[in-house]
Amino acid sequence: MRVAARAAARTALALALLAGFSAPALAKGRSGGILPGATAKDPVDIDAGKLDYFDKEQRLVYSGGVIVVNGPSTLKASRLTILLDKAQEGAPATGGDRVRHIDAEGPVTLVSKDQIGVGDHGSYDRAENKVYLTGNVTLTQGDNVAKGDRLVYDVGSGQATMMGQRVRSMFTPSEAKKDDKDAKSKRD
After folding, report:
1. What is the pLDDT of residues 140-161, one digit of tens each?
2. Residue 43 · residue 70 · CB < 8 Å
């Protein structure tokens, strides 16, 4: 009976933490949400096949087709690990402002407005306020494509840096796009 009560208490605690993820993130010193394009007021919505919560480590592990939506951005991964800051005694137990670090195992796809980033692994670190994509990284914006080994996106400044032994980019001028449309319409 005692084991069942402990399991119920853990489940209730995990649900309380998850309820906090849907509350606005009101963290001081963080200008945006946990995904690019999101604000600190945007809720974090996580959908997955399974959630394991580790109370002592303040760690949540989502697995099975994980989808995270934060404002206008969406992250898809096979597995997602979230590390939380310890709750301050007497402070409200909201989850979004307690996110310290996120690791995503892939394939990882991050969609933000008109950009799509794909890589083998991804992570977000609140202290640095940066999103990282590593391993076979591709960043697309419309017809423009950049490929490399690692992408670092600064959430605060909006600056992205692609790195690797070789970085390859292909940019399609807007005139070329217009010429392609005109040629297609003439064929039809």
Report:
1. 999 999 999 999 988 778 888 9
2. yes
**Torsion angle defined by CA atoms of residues 163, 167, 168 and 173, in that order, rounded to the nearest 10 degrees:** 50
- Whether the bond between 107 and the residue before it is cis, its omega within 30 degrees of 0, is yes
What pTM did the predictor assign? 0.71
Residue spans per domain, the chain: 2-187
In whole angstroms, give the CA distance from residue 110 to residue 91. 32
Domain 2-187 belongs to what topology?
A: lipopolysaccharide transport protein A fold (2.60.450)
Distance CA 180, CA 185 (A): 9
Q: Residues near 9 by Cβ (< 8 Å), separated by ≥ 6?
A: none
The answer to whether 49 and 125 are in contact (CB under 8 A) is: no
